[in-house]
Amino acid sequence: MALLTALQGDYGDAADALRIDGRALSREELLGAATAVADRVAGAPALAVLARPTVETVVAVVGGLLAGVPVVPLPPDSGPKEREHILRDSGAALLAHAVGDAGSGGVQGLPVDPAERAATTYAEPAADATGFVLYTSGTTGAPKGAVIRREAIAADLEALAAAWQWTAEDTLVHGLPLFHVHGLLLGVLGALRTGSRLVHTGRPTPAGYAAAGGSLYFGVPTVWSRVAADPEAARRLTSARLLVSGSAPLPVPVFEKLAALTGHAPIERYGMTESLITVSTRADGERRPGSVGLPLDGVRTRLVGEDGAPVPSDGESVGELQIAGPTLFSGYLNRPDADAEAWTADGWFRTGDVAVIGADGFHRIVGRASVDLIKSGGYRIGAGEVEAALRDHPAVADAAVVGAPDEDLGQAIVAYVVPDGAVTGEQLTAFVAERLSAHKRPRRVVLVPELPRNALGKVLKKQLLTEAGEKK
Description:
Elements: E1 18-20, E2 23-25, H1 27-41, E3 47-50, H2 55-67, E4 71-74, H3 80-90, E5 94-98, E6 108-112, E7 130-135, E8 145-149, H4 150-164, E9 171-174, H5 181-194, E10 197-200, H6 206-212, E11 216-219, H7 221-228, H8 231-235, E12 242-245, H9 252-262, E13 267-272, E14 276-280, E15 294-295, E16 300-304, E17 319-324, E18 331-332, H10 336-342, E19 349-357, E20 363-368, H11 369-372, E21 373-376, E22 379-382, H12 383-391, E23 396-406, E24 410-419, H13 425-435, E25 444-447, H14 461-470
Parallel strand pairs: 1-10, 3-4, 3-5, 5-6, 9-10, 9-11, 11-12, 12-13, 24-25
Antiparallel strand pairs: 1-2, 7-8, 8-18, 13-14, 14-15, 16-17, 17-19, 19-20, 21-22, 23-24
Helix pairs in contact: 1-2, 4-5, 7-9
């Protein structure tokens, strides 16, 4: 299955088919520049790419894919220890970077010049060949390299194009990092597969999104929260066709405000580095706040309890989400121990996320089993449900809930709240108790100016857990 079909088919080729942070390339120019990179990297065991949001990054990534060399995106803000680990673990022989950037970690640098051109023709690599080695965040140790097959990427993009009615007539706009599934595989390769025009705004600002004139927009909750807080920018998205949110749950108040300002209820979807995108709301289907929709074509999901027994799809019962289907990764590079933990005996991937599935098949992600499934006083409580209740308070801008160790309860619900007005912890505890079962109320509320987040807007709950334990 070919991956970069828009570089090889008749999709038309505007001079600005790709615009990255203000710099434009036609697809013909991209293909020529990427082929020049392919000529220099062909035969390498792996190609690391210093993945800044630049034209050079896209040229380097496409060059590696053309040559059939596994691509290893390197976060530009990674520290020396993390960078050295990724380069060493992946076996990358070369590090592609923009002219003027420095190489690192003892790996040979490969300066990328988008003005270079070559016309070599490369055969399409095998469908089951490795396209990328994507490193996880490393929250439980050194980052692990997830090996992603080319056919998994193609299957995912094909399913998403169907779910979102994504075609060559679209203009995709986003400003997401180019070292993750969301920004790179969906946000760049998706355009190079469907033939849609791509505008990457460099940084995902409301003004940048408003000025881009797109039909299809990708963002994480932090981005959409900022757009919703800028009514003038938000209203300029009314001409869009689809707003897509992912990488973390979109707060219901943000969902509702976006819908009111833009006229578009956003699409929400769910995925992981290891699985790519597996569940999504449909462009022509119901868009339910707090839900990520239905499995994509070819994807199967199930919920499993701690005892290994099936959990019913009744809209209430919480279980670990497990996935099977063509978008799954091949395994962790050099980590058979991690592979053994990640897969069930019957071949399903353990996501480590807890979810609820309704009788209608709609999925609601509760969070990570390690931090979002709270066991308090004999009850199993999803942190997401408490967070949603807190966000319903008019004086709450954002909230994150964790389960701190507690001698009496096992875990006590601790809420970190970003206030948007005058409110006390006691008032918020009472507010939640009025809406949810009493055992789901926070035992402690901490008012904070902001929540710690990573580059994709996910709250760093392990950091909050550590703080909650220290301040017990």
